[in-house]
Amino acid sequence: MGDLGGFLSNFMRYPPITPNLFTRNREKILAQLPENSIAIICGADQVLRNDGLYRYRQSSDFFYLTGIEQENSFLILLPDKTDKNEQAILFVREPNPLMERWEGKKLTAAEATAISGISHIRYTKNIAQSIAELLPHISTIFLNQNNNRRGNQVLTREIRLGKLLRKQFQNISIKNCAPLLATSRMIKEPEELALMQRACDITEKAFRTVLKNTKPGMREYEIEALLWHTFIAEGVSHHAFEPIVAAGENSCFLHYNKNNCIIAPNDSILIDFGAEYANYAADCTRVIPVSGKFTAQQKLVYNAVLRVFYFARTQIVAGTSIEAYHKLVCEAMQEELLQLGLISTDDVKNGINGKPAYFKYFMHNTSHFIGLDTHDVGKRSDILKPNMVVSCEPGLYVPEWGFGVRLESDIVITETGNYDLIANIPIEIDEIETLMHHE
Fold first, then answer.
1. Of 27, 188, 347, 399, which has the highest C-beta tally within 10 A?
2. 226 DSSP assignment
3. Which of these, 191, 160, 139, lies nearest to 42 by C-alpha position?
4. Sheet (strand 140-143) strand order
5. Of residues 125 and 158, which shows the higher confidence score?
6. Cβ pair 82, 36 in contact under 8 A
7. CA 91 and chain centroid, separation
8. For residue 278, what is the DSSP state?
9. Which residues have a catalytic role annotated?
10. 52 confidence band (pLDDT: 50, 70, 90)
11. Closest to 284 (Cα-Cα) out of 298, 274, 293
12. Residues near 327 by Cβ (< 8 Å), separated by ≥ 6?
């Protein structure tokens, strides 16, 4: 890329990604679009924070198709164009000196092409006119509506655009592009797996820093600070999600992230964290003893979860589904709970409070998909295929004993089995205790 490549390296926190990746990703969507249609993919809105803005994070769908992280960007896909170079139009903000004085450099057309591989670049101010020119020739518009588990609680740009188009062009069908994008995003390209591996390697480095520096009397947020220091030093822009640093009984709350309590000498600490590198997520959970040595009771629960973790990994293979193997994992966890004396055979027979007996101590799924989002696109019923990535995260939460244990890794499905992207992050009790005393 010459000088342009040097500029892009400074523009982002990671080396430029080959635009061939984004071209291939667009081709997957174009192949699914019917004749006489277009797809309009919107970049994420900027979100106000009082008199400023929250730190910007691009829409995962938009990044997947373009590699563009700049705000106020749009993409139009045109499957009817016979020339592949004309099947995508990218819209970016027009740079101007006054805006750049406040916000820094914006992408030129040449830079946007170098990142995305799209040769047709227009400015965002012309998006409405461009859509109007296309509408007489189409019957269907696909919009990338938000299908995540939180639902559409925010009136996003695509929702606003959809309402406007439905009102003004009642003869045009408007469909959801999200299922097409999900089908494509679930199976990772080699470049994507490499970026996820880098996110996981940074996550490992952060965890080893925690092992080396954790001591009784610290506050949970001091461990969070150790994670964040390593992440920033390695070019990470964001946590993949709000980190959980939960000591003692806080580890029984699944999404605890206040991270403000003092860590007592005999506490175990559940740390659920991950780097987001080039917008790709890592997701890791480990449990460590603040004193450097687990108590006997902590070891019992930890080893029970670890056995289930290893069993679960054997079940995560192509041809099954998260839904299918979760049932087997729950059965394995139930046996461990019987051995621990936390449930009885009568509990197994009759259930507890209308739920299966294991649910009292293990109440979440074994897996979720991972990719551009920590909880990535994909349903629990979807059949697993090679190059999909899922978590493996059994856990036990025992409030009456004052702690919980969850162990989580990121598993890549292969033709013959799977492999763990964070296999180098210590998980065995002996290794963790040794590293905490001697690293």
1. 188
2. H
3. 160
4. 120-123, 88-92, 74-77, 37-42, 140-143, 173-176
5. 125
6. no
7. 26
8. T
9. 51, 255, 272, 283, 364, 368, 375, 393, 397, 406, 408
10. confident
11. 274
12. none
Angle, helices 296-315/322-340, rounded to nearest 10 degrees = 150
**From CA 306, how far away is CA 393, in angstroms rounded?**
10
Greatest pairwise CA separation for the chain in angstroms: 74
Is residue 389 within 8 Å of 188, Cβ to Cβ? yes
Integer CA distances (angstroms), 381 to 252, 370, 391, in order: 28, 15, 15
Q: Band of the pLDDT at 168, cuts 50, 70, 90?
A: confident
Residues 122-135 have pLDDT tens digits of 999 999 999 989 98
The C-alpha atoms of residue 131 and residue 135 are separated, in whole angstroms, by 6
- In sequence order, the β-bridge partners of residue 395 are 406
Residues near 140 by beta carbon (within 8 Å), at least 6 away in sequence: 34, 36, 37, 38, 172, 173, 174, 175
Amino acid at 71: E
Interstrand relation of 268-273 and 284-289 (parallel, antiparallel or unpaired):
antiparallel
pLDDT for 46 equals 87
CA separation (Å) from 133 to 75, 137, 414?
15, 8, 45
Q: Angle formed by the axes of helices 109-116 and 19-30, to 10°?
A: 70
Least confident of 138-147, 196-205, 376-385: 138-147
For residue 159, which of 171, 150, 170, 151 has the smallest C-alpha distance?
151
Mean pLDDT over 372-389 rounds to: 97
- Sequence-ordered list of residues with C-beta below 8 angstroms from that of 187, at least 6 positions apart, any chain: 385, 386, 387, 388
Under 8 Å between Cβ of 352 and 396: no
Amino acid at 141: I
Is residue 102 within 8 A of residue 54, CB to CB? The reply is: no
